[in-house]
What we know:
This protein is of the alpha/beta class. It is built from eleven helices and eleven strands.
Amino acid sequence: MQALFIASIMMFFSSTVLAEGKILKLGVVPQQSASNLAKAWLPLTLSLSEKTGYQIRFATAPNIPEFEKRVAAGEYDITYLNPYHYTVFSQSIGLRAIARQKDKRIHGIIVVRKDSDISSLSMLSGVEIAFPAPAAFAATVLPQAHLRLEEVSFMPQYVSSHDSVYSGVVKGLFLAGGGIDRTLSTFPKAQSDKLKVIWRSEGYTPHAFAVSADLSDEETDRIQSALLSLNHQEDGMKILTRLGFKTGLMKSEDKDWDDVRSLKIDLLN
C-alpha cells in the first residue's frame, strides 16, 4: 500500500511539474527509513516544485555516514541536515542556510522502555546504548558528551537511524537509546507509547535547510520564499506538521548556528 502511495505521488509529480523546469535534488538526512521519509517528504517536494517552477526531487541515503559522503560530494542542491553537519559543510563546501523550524530548539534525548525501572543516567552504567550514527548531533553527540560528563561508562551501538534506535529499545535489544523529540513524535504511536524519556539536553539551533553554493541568488531566493510561504497556507502547514515542523519555518542565516560551533565538535574534519 505504501509503495502504491509513493508511486501515485511520483506519477502525479511527473505529470504536473513543468517538463522544462530545472531539476534540483533535495537531500534529507536519513533519520528514518527511506520509505517513511519518502512518504513524508514527497508532498513537500511537490509543493516546492509547483511554487518554484523547478523539478524538486526527494533524495536520501541508506544511513547517516553515507549521507555525509553524499553531502560532501555535492550531490544535493538543497539539503536538510543536522546542526553539526551544517557547521561542517557550510565551511567545507559552502552550504548556505536558508530556513529552519520557527521557535524551536533541538534537544537530545535518551529513551528507555516505559516499563523499565531505569530512571536516571547513572543506572545506564556498563550497558549498550543505541545511537543512530557517530556524528548525529542531538541524538548521539549531545547524549554521549553528557554521559561522559556524568562519568557513566557505556557501550555505543550505531544502528543507522532514529527509528532503528526506538525500535531496538521497544524490542528489548537495547536498554536505552539516543534520539530527538521530533523523530520520537513521528515514530508510530503504538510503539512510542512504550517509551519514556529519562534525559533531555539543553536546546540548540535545530536542523537547517541549506542550499548548494552552486545555486544562484535568484534560485536561492525562490526556494526560500517557497519554503516560507508554507507558513501562510492551510495545506502548507499540514505538510509541515506532518514533517514535525508544527511551529512552521523561519528565515535563517549562517550565524544562527554559532551556538553549535561554540561546542568545538570535530568529528568529520
